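Re: weekly structure request thread

Next one in the queue (490 aa):
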Amino acid sequence: MKGKRLIIIIATAVIVLAVALSFWSSRPAPSAAEHQGHEAAHDKGEGTLHVAEAARERAALETAVVERRDLKHSLRVFGKIDYNETGLATITSRVEGYVENLFVNFTGVEVKKGDHLAEIYSPDLAVAQRELFLGSRDPTDKTLLAAAKTKLERWGLLPEQIEGFLREGKVTERVTLMAPMDGTVTEKMVVQNSMVKPGEMLYKLANLDSVWLYLDIYEYELGMIRYGQEVAATTESYPGETFTGRVWFINPTLSEETRTVKVIVSLDNKGRKLKPGMFVSANVEVPLLADGTAASSGVEGRWSCPMHPQVLRDAAGPCPVCQMALVQIPGKAGTAKPAQALAIPLTAVLDSGTRKLVHVEVSEDVYRPVEVKVGPRSGDYYPVLEGVKEGDRVVVRGNFLLDSQFQIAGLPSLFYPKGQAPSAGHSGHGGTVTPGSKSATPSPIPESNNIEPAEPSGHEGMVIPPDKAAPVPPPPAKETKDATPPGHQH
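Done, posted below.
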């Protein structure tokens, strides 16, 4: 397989070179002035190549100006919706007893804070209530009353339930479990009339008002990710609709299996359209600085809630959702627009895998290859870091054909930075030329190759070497009136 692949690659290269040779050899002979200008370029040792006007038109060479632009690098990544871990809760039994009433008896039910979930019969609850009533009857000693309230609260009863026991003054042997927050029942591990013990999990709740989008960022793309960057996500379930969020956590570890880093994006989900487990396609538009690096996200120096990253404020204060103190986002504050980057068209760059090259138009008909250093791709442009300057004109069409002519002339090219021995004479004039030479002389034909022409036999091109040819019996003789002409006997 490797041998066949190598043969295919060599054959393809030979065909391309042959086409280029035939194209440039078919152009009109250059005038004396053009020839003189061509030789002058070689004499200077600048590695430039002269292309006549007719050849430029046939090759359809086009150029563009290197100029400064606003560039954005687009990251197209995929991810998966999952629960917001800060909005998860479990409902456990804190007493031993039996589930007599199950008010929430299937998963997926939406509950509000304070809604009843289950009712448990527990003899231990009756003992604790009697202690509560005894403590309430002695106004001089509040110790027993406080201890009884503490015990009931640790069993999961709300203060409102305890006050209800005191108002009614009636012992009950059943405790009702209440939802501690708004959410959706994602798991149910209890059934009607089952026995439960302290610490046994009964329900799992998840607040789906916001969800997390886990994005897999490859390590070579990680330098483009910044805290607070906006992310636009789309799903197949809702074509044409975009869900926006912000990057609020970058995992500090990398997966050795996938070579990716998990990045968390917080998405608002008040409409419950995003479901945990749903696959999402996301796009991150990263503005680029003049040096090709990612610009700041614009939220540095502002204040946010660790539990609710969608909350952004310009000053310190409590979180409007959970009343937790806001923390300042690290980084230098500033909303100034990033400086424009020096941009070069995408089609101008020839990439060998180890180096990148452009062809700069020195004058109207003279070109020079220049190695460049570019940043991450931005649409149809690259931010160029080294090699060319603002105002230079670079070839954006026909540069592959132009580079092949640099190779033929033995000048520096994409795959030969220092040039090589020319393979087709002096840029199509015939003969053998070395870079910097002024003239070309036709290569003499070796004497051993001078072959005397043979007399025509009528079967040229079908000759078999005598040592390889098998004897052929003569055909049967036929009586014919006309003789067969010589050279046409079969």
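The chain has three domains: 31-69+340-438, 73-84+208-293, 88-206. Confidence is low (pLDDT under 50) at residues 26-45, 424-466, 479-490.
Next request, please.
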